[in-house]
Every structure is written in structure tokens, then in C-alpha cells.
Prior knowledge:
With about 280 residues, the protein is α+β, with helices and mostly antiparallel strands. Helix content is about 20%, strand content about 40%. The radius of gyration is 18 Å and the shape is globular.
Amino acid sequence: MSTGNDSASPSLGFRKMHGLGNDFVIIDARDARGDGVTPALARALGDRHRGVGFDQLAVIRGAEGADASVEFWNADGTMAGACGNATRCVAHLLMAETGRADTAMLTGNGRLGAIRLPDGRVTVDMGPARTGWREIPLAEACDTVSLPLDGAPGGVSMGNPHCVFFVPNVAAIDLAAIGPRIEHHPLFPERTNVEFAEVRSRDNLRLRVWERGTGITLACGSGACATVVAGVRKGLLDRRVTIELDGGELELEWRDDGHVLMTGPVSEVFEGRLSPAFLAGVGA
């Protein structure tokens, strides 16, 4: 899986991948060359005009007790605790590297296992959903089934905070205007991802997402997981659901043990190298 990063190379290799249009730059930092990932580098890479462009940056590092560890960065240079579609993309790379149909990764949400299905899709166990107000976290104690905001959204953590609204028609939502207001609401001391879901049946819904630190994205794996959990807790959904996002479909299951399984496709787009001049310009 290596993109040729080594301590003698003045450039830095990366891969571009996406899951349902939710796109990622992936850097293999299991060698000395990838150690210098900084907020400035993440912001520069995330610039779609002057960099590469991504919804999230995933950095692969070595780990004990797993095939790798993965850290996630938002386009604004902040770190994210979880990213479901990027986790599936990294799992795909690790399984291709080992020749196995399963893998395990350490993330901010714990040890996550993944498998490759015969049709090429990847299923990842995103770990347990957390619904306590301190776990999300919220600024004050409240009922996380129906948060004290207009629309009574649900609150869930999948390693990152989510605020899930259930609405009659997601197409009517001005996501660009409402998303940042909710992301920065005082109820969320670490900001939040924002989901708007339209329930079509107990096992099918339409979802649009505003991601913390990034903005509107075509898909959000952790957001899809959080939406199923919030919908089940409100009595709106069954535990197995197909979710249609702007970029395509994901299959979700909230198991009785609290873990959320997510299944969907992954796509490799290209490999590239960041030039020495680009890296010098951001101090990397």
C-alpha cells in the first residue's frame, strides 16, 4: 500500500479515495516521512483550488494489537474523532495489502473491525453508539432523545458529536444556512455534525449532512450511523436501515450490543506526490 514515502524523499506520497463521493486524502505515515502532518498541512491539502481537496484527511500509523491506527483531520485543520467512510477506505487498502478479507484499526472511537464482502463493498463495525449527554458531549444535562432545540433533534456520539433532525422533506432544508448555526450552537462545546433525515419507511430514509469543520458533504458514514441510532430511539426506525445520501446508499445496522455496522462501496481515484515546494510552503 506504500506510496513511496521515506526519509530520503523530499516529497510526500498520498492516495485519493472516496466512499459515495465523500472524498479523502490518505497518507501512509507508517514510516518517518509522514510524521509531519500538522493543521497547516491539513488546511493546505484540503484546499480544492490550491491543494488536493478532501472532506477528510486520513493518516495511517502503526499500532500494536491492530493492523494500523488511523487519525482523521477536517478540511479546516481540526481533528475528527471518527469518519466512517474514510475508515472503510483505509480498511480496503489494508485488506489489499495483507490479502485478507478482514482487518482491524485503532481509531479515536476504539478498535474497529472491517470485512470485505464478495461484491467488493466493505462493512465496518463503527463501535458502540454513545447517548449520554456527557459522552456526546453537551454543555448541560438534557434528554438526548429530544434535545432542547427547535425540531427536537436527537443527540448521539459515534466518537464525534451528532445532532440529528427528522424532517418531512430534506430537499426543503437550507443546509448551508442552518448547518453552521447548529454546528456552533452553545449546546455543543466541541461543535457538532448536523444531520437532516426524511423517513420514508421504517427501514429506509433520505439523509443530508453538514459535517463539523468541513461543511456539506455527499455522504457521512458516522452521520448515517448516528441517524439510525437517533431514529430507533425516537421509535421511527427499525435497527436495519438503508440510507440514501447525496452520493449513494449505505446499509446500517444498530446491533443489540450497541455497536453500529455500516456497509458501502469504496473507490480508489489516484495516487500522487506532494511537491517539495508545496510542503515547504506549509512548513512540512
